[in-house]
């Protein structure tokens, strides 16, 4: 096959050679960090998704080599000679989404979804990036790959790999709940499905998202009536934008921490509608009155920092799937916990796996052993890959420094405080005692 070269412009607008592994019949490129991805069709639903149904329903021959294997660098596709979300530097990396446990510096060539280009280039400036639209196929050396919506965050994608009539799908992180800020999860038929299992225990069952946002609105509205600020901690990329797009902006003014502002811009450039949001650093430090009826969205790293003093009287809350557990809320020490996750819950994981029609499932991270055991009990062939992917606690990115390094809206003091707090961010993965706890019966998603 004739080598195809494309002009890829990096953050510094340097010209780079198109990697040989991406020989294809159609080539796309990204023009630097300010590339504006096209509007995403947010109207997709699970029942209306554009599913590929040409995978064989017959089980794979056990003598056929696996299309994906685990190596010290990451998950590797031998027939295509590329890695999926590798954690060590490699020649060619397919990135499912821009969270820092899946997207890292050091690879020579990157392939990711067109929808997530803005965020990925903000996190990893200067990388040689090629993008694919959802559903667009890339053919090289007898292997065909395509990316399909995962519903996790903006630009998140599942990777479909087809080789000699066999189809594998690597999910990355995903959720099935509706989210106005990213394309909905698309089930893709395959023989082997590589899945996450962050919340892979029966205790994790999410309420309807609208009920959660109604609870956040009620908490905010009550605080505003008392002249009190409402500080909501949530992860900077994905969760923050989902919250902003879903709360009732008529309740009061909305502010965000400086670390969240550039991600908001990337979402807007991708066509996602967000309400007007001001950066906290734009307000004079002594002007506490500006926040008395406000909702302030901040990363978890800001919790317990001096940055919070500027709000005067405030109530704080945390939005995370871990809030399903009493222990997680207790360790966070917040006034309220809202159970909201960008990962699939236990029923969602089962639904997604079933929708693929896969006879074999490989689990990558989260509650791996319980999930593998359960899948085997259901008659599926199941195993696990040992990976270095994280969980729902990932929020502090190191894009050439701390998460505020590229923030134009944050004051130097705000950026410094966040850097210090980020270094002290603790892991909130529940311990064994938490997993034994029953789901809390308190009103974590209802008004005061």
From TrEMBL:
It comes from Paraburkholderia terricola. PANTHER family: BLL1145 PROTEIN, CLEAVAGE AND POLYADENYLATION SPECIFICITY FACTOR FAMILY MEMBER. Residues 393-448 are annotated as: Disordered. It comes from the Bacteria. Residues 396-424 have a biased composition (Low complexity). This is Putative mRNA 3-end processing factor. Residues 425-439 have a biased composition (Basic and acidic residues). InterPro entries: MBL, RibonucZ/Hydroxyglut_hydro, Xnuc_lig_assoc. GO terms for molecular function: RNA endonuclease activity. Gene3D superfamilies: Ribonuclease Z/Hydroxyacylglutathione hydrolase-like (3.60.15.10). SUPFAM superfamilies: Metallo-hydrolase/oxidoreductase.
């Amino acid at each position: 096959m004739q080598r195809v070269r494309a002009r890829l412009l990096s953050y510094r607008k340097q010209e780079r050679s198109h990697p040989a592994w991406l020989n294809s019949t159609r080539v796309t490129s990204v023009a630097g960090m300010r590339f504006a991805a096209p509007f995403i069709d947010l109207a997709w639903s699970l029942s209306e998704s554009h599913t590929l149904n040409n995978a064989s329903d017959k089980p794979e021959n056990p003598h056929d080599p696996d299309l994906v294997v685990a190596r010290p660098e990451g998950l590797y596709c031998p027939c295509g000679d590329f890695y999926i979300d590798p954690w060590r530097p490699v020649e060619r990396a397919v990135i499912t989404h821009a969270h820092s446990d899946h997207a890292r510096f050091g690879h020579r060539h990157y392939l990711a979804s067109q929808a997530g280009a803005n965020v990925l280039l903000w996190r990893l400036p200067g990388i040689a990036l090629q993008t694919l639209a959802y559903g667009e196929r890339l053919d090289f050396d007898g292997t065909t790959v395509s990316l399909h919506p995962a519903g996790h965050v903006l630009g998140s994608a599942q990777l479909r790999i087809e080789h000699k009539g066999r189809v594998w799908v690597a999910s990355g992180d995903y959720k099935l709940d509706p989210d106005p800020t990213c394309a909905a999860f698309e089930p893709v038929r395959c023989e082997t499905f590589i899945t996450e299992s962050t919340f892979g225990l029966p205790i994790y069952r999410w309420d309807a998202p609208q009920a959660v946002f109604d609870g956040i609105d009620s908490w905010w509205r009550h605080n505003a009536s008392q002249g009190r600020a409402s500080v909501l901690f949530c992860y900077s990329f994905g969760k923050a934008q989902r919250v902003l797009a879903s709360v009732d902006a008529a309740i009061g003014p909305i502010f965000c921490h400086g670390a969240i502002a550039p991600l908001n811009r990337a979402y807007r450039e991708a066509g996602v509608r967000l309400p007007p949001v001001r950066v906290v650093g734009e307000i004079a430090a002594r002007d506490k009155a500006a926040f008395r009826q406000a909702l302030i969205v901040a990363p978890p790293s800001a919790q317990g920092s001096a940055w919070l003093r500027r709000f005067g009287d405030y109530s704080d809350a945390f939005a995370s799937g871990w809030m399903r557990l009493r222990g997680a809320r207790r360790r966070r020490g917040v006034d309220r916990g809202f159970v909201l996750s960008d990962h699939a819950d236990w029923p969602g994981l089962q639904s997604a796996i079933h929708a693929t029609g896969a006879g074999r499932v490989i689990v990558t991270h989260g509650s791996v052993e319980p999930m593998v055991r359960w899948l085997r009990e259901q008659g599926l062939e199941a195993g696990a890959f040992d990976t270095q992917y994280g969980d729902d606690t990932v929020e502090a990115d190191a894009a050439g420094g701390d998460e505020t390094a590229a923030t134009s809206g944050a004051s130097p003091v705000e950026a410094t405080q966040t850097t210090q707090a980020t270094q002290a961010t603790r892991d909130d993965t529940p311990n064994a005692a938490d997993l034994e706890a029953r789901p809390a019966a308190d009103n974590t998603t209802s008004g005061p």
